[in-house]
From TrEMBL, chain A:
Alphabetical UniProt keywords: Acyltransferase, Transferase
Region (Disordered), start-end ranges: 214-233
Domain Phospholipid/glycerol acyltransferase: 41-163
InterPro entries cross-referenced by the UniProt entry: Plipid/glycerol_acylTrfase (IPR002123)
Matching CDD domains: LPLAT_AGPAT-like (cd07989)
Domain of life of the organism encoding this protein: Bacteria
Pathway: Lipid metabolism
Listed name of the protein: 1-acyl-sn-glycerol-3-phosphate acyltransferase
From TrEMBL, chain B:
Organism: Alysiella filiformis DSM 16848
Keywords: Membrane, Nucleotidyltransferase, Transferase, Transmembrane, Transmembrane helix
Pfam family, one: CTP_transf_1
Keyword Ubl conjugation: no
Keyword Hydrolase set for record: no
Protein name: Phosphatidate cytidylyltransferase
Highest taxon listed in the record's lineage: Bacteria
GO molecular function terms noted in the UniProt entry: nucleotidyltransferase activity
Length: 233, 314
């Protein structure tokens, strides 16, 4: 990459980080307050907005971002010159083919990046949560396969609070609602742990970081949901 | 437009800084005395005092630029307050456009009317037009779940954070005979009285308060704290009569009305927080909580003060 493009990528990164910080109130954490190392981590977060990975990105200490790669869908991000530049040069993302029929290839791609010492940002819900009444969608099994392929890698749960209110899916104008990024303690796959056990444990660890009134909503069949269903029937 | 504070404002600020200095010294003394087992009340008090230093510096700086400075400062205070309010109450995506309208249309327009001294529009923009437009926007989103409650909450957020707070800089637009060029003093009078009432209620309550006055709304407010705080703030208002067009008695009466409004406003806002299960609106001001935690009493006192002055003196 030429020098000026590199400079441009840095400029975009800085201005985008500043803009999102001003908009959401989220600032980088001090590396001293996180009790793990930057390398070979899988940050997994809840997914409700396009802004999610940027929020995780800016909440990590600036130095750490050098080894962090958001995992993003190639189909969308390679769709235009600007998008391509931003996702590849600014965020150094790991682009995967979401619509391909080969989940093994995706796991292999992520494994390779992790074994190179990089860290990844993933969203195990698989898709953006657009339901106001659902706090967290069920996890897809990809995160389990990734854990099984990489027993030496630590998984770090992250709860992103409120970003779905800044820019919900389908809206164009972001509003300056205050957001929060909570980073939890790392966990790893236990030997002999089953897929369901691991997914449940990973999900619980993420939900534990959410504010209490939202955690309560995640319990099975909240009252408000029952009511709406009664009304519909 | 004159670009310097009237000399009397200097005396008020000097007085406030003297009190802050005294408070800082007492705070440090108490901290050193309890250095072995730190006391959360003393730590919170010291945090509040250091935040007060910053807030008074910002006020002094903004007021130096008269009408524009006061308007700009309260524009940003409104923005911070609106943000905290909407962060707490925004639950459904159907509200997105209405909230965007509050931030990007109503807030700048309201302060534009303050700046250009357009009283007619200033007085009706939010209580009339926003009241009608916000539910229309929410309704058109197509999400009918709790539409009435959602609209009411957004309207209330706009009322508190934009409309009520904009009455503070609006004092600058009042045309008071024989008081021209000194309106900033009225603004300082109101802020000093309302905020002193808050601080004195806190001090009286912490020192001698036992019986809570409204435990369901705010467990920290006590009978002694409220009565003592409001009484002493009323006396302070009377002492400040020289920076106002009021007689000492009028100043005391107006000060008392503002203390009552500020106290009741604080109670209501505390009740709203309680209904959402949070203790503070935010964490913007160290020791105080959010911006709304600091200005909730001003939200209720400012419109009343503005209209008292407007009807009887302007």
């Amino acid at each position: 990459m030429s020098n000026s493009l590199h400079w441009l990528a840095r400029l975009i990164d800085r201005s985008l980080s500043l803009f999102v910080s001003l908009l959401t109130g989220v600032r980088p954490k001090f590396s001293g307050s996180l009790n793990f190392s930057p390398e070979k981590k899988v940050y997994y977060a809840n997914h409700a907005s396009h802004g999610d990975f940027v929020l995780v990105w800016i909440s990590l200490p600036q130095k750490w971002r050098e080894v962090v790669r958001p995992v993003a869908g190639a189909d969308y991000w390679l769709g235009g010159k600007i998008r391509r530049f931003i996702i590849q040069q600014v965020f150094n993302a790991l682009l995967i083919m979401r619509n391909g029929n080969d989940p093994k290839a995706i796991t292999a791609q992520m494994t390779e990046a992790l074994q190179n010492g990089d860290s990844l940002i993933i969203f195990p819900e698989g898709t953006r949560n657009t339901d106001d009444d659902v706090v967290l969608l069920p996890f897809k099994s990809g995160i389990y396969h990734l854990a099984r392929e990489n027993p030496d890698v630590q998984f770090v749960p992250i709860w992103i609070d409120n970003i779905n209110r800044v820019l919900p899916k389908g809206k164009l104008i972001p509003v300056p609602i205050i957001c929060d990024v909570q980073i939890g303690d790392e966990l790893r796959l236990h030997p002999n742990e089953s897929k369901d056990e691991f997914l449940q444990r990973a999900r619980d660890a993420m939900l534990a970081l959410a504010p209490k009134h939202k955690r309560d909503l995640a319990l099975p069949q909240p009252l408000s949901k029952q009511k709406t269903q009664e009304n519909q029937s | 437009m004159n670009n310097a504070l009237p000399i009397q404002a200097g005396f008020v600020f000097a007085g406030v800084f003297a009190v802050l200095l005294l408070a800082t010294l007492i705070g440090n003394h108490l901290k050193n005395k309890h250095i072995l087992n730190p006391n959360p009340v003393i730590n919170n008090m010291n945090a509040r005092i250091s935040s007060w230093w910053v807030m008074m510096m910002v006020l002094l700086f903004a007021f130096w630029f008269d009408h524009i400075g006061a308007t700009l400062l309260f524009f940003f205070i409104s923005l911070a307050a609106l943000r905290e309010f909407m962060t707490l109450i925004y639950q459904r995506r159907g509200d997105h456009n209405a909230i965007a309208a509050c931030f990007y249309v109503l807030l700048p327009l309201q302060y534009y009317f303050v700046l250009t001294n357009w009283y007619g529009m200033f007085a009706v923009l939010i209580p009339v037009y926003a009241f009608l437009i916000l539910p229309i926007i929410s309704g058109l989103s197509g999400d009918t779940v709790a539409l009435f409650e959602r609209s009411a909450k957004i309207q209330w957020g706009a009322m508190m954070s934009i409309f009520c707070l904009s009455h503070v800089p609006a004092i600058m637009t009042l045309n008071i005979p024989e008081f021209a060029g000194r309106n900033i003093l009225l603004l300082i009078f109101m802020i000093v009285v309302v905020q002193s009432s808050d601080v004195l209620q806190y001090i009286f309550g912490k020192l001698w308060g036992k019986t809570p006055i409204a435990p369901a709304l705010s467990p920290n407010k006590t009978v002694v704290g409220t009565v003592g705080g409001m009484a002493s703030a009323t006396i302070l208002a009377a002492c400040l009569y020289q920076i106002t067009p009021f007689t000492p008695f009028q100043a005391a009466l107006i000060g008392f009305v503002m203390c009552v409004m500020g106290f009741l406003g604080g109670l209501v806002m505390s009740g709203i927080k309680r209904s959402y299960g949070v203790k503070d609106w935010g964490k913007m001001i160290h020791g105080h909580g959010g911006m709304l935690d600091r200005v909730d009493s001003i939200c209720f006192a400012a419109p009343v003060f503005f209209h008292i002055v407007r009807y009887f003196w302007a």
